[in-house]
């Protein structure tokens, strides 16, 4: 039997590209949650020393700029992790299904 593949909504690629463009050097992963909902993880050294709320403001400004309004609710979550915090996360804390959008 042929393997069935999930086609990604366009907003996933749009947001992935915008995050890469606006946060050079960041590691960005996506995880399909269910239906059309996706979670994004952004690990970026330039988040070092930046508070959680400021990180979230920055990524959500990008979301609001590039993701069509009808798709914004399908951005289930964006985890923002500073490079210097990464050592405190275990493999179980981060999404298991890692894939690049594109």
Could you write a compact summary of the structure shown?
By secondary structure, the chain is α+β, with helices and mostly antiparallel strands. Helix content is 27%, strand content 24%.
Description:
This protein has 2 helices and 3 strands. The protein has helices spanning 10-22, 52-66, and strands at residues 27-34, 37-44, 75-82.
- Biggest sheet statistics: 3 strands, mixed
**Low-pLDDT segments, ≥5 res:** 97-102
Count of helix runs: 2
Tell me the distance between the termini.
27 Å
Kindly report the average pLDDT value.
Answer: 87
Radius of gyration equals: 14 Å
Using DSSP, what is the number of strands? 3
Look at the helices and sheets and give the structural class.
Answer: alpha+beta
Secondary-structure map with pairings?
Layout: H1 10-22, E1 27-34, E2 37-44, H2 52-66, E3 75-82
Parallel strand pairs: 2-3
Antiparallel strand pairs: 1-2
Helix pairs in contact: 1-2
Keywords:
single chain, 102 residues, 3-stranded mixed β-sheet, 2 helices, alpha+beta, 27% helix
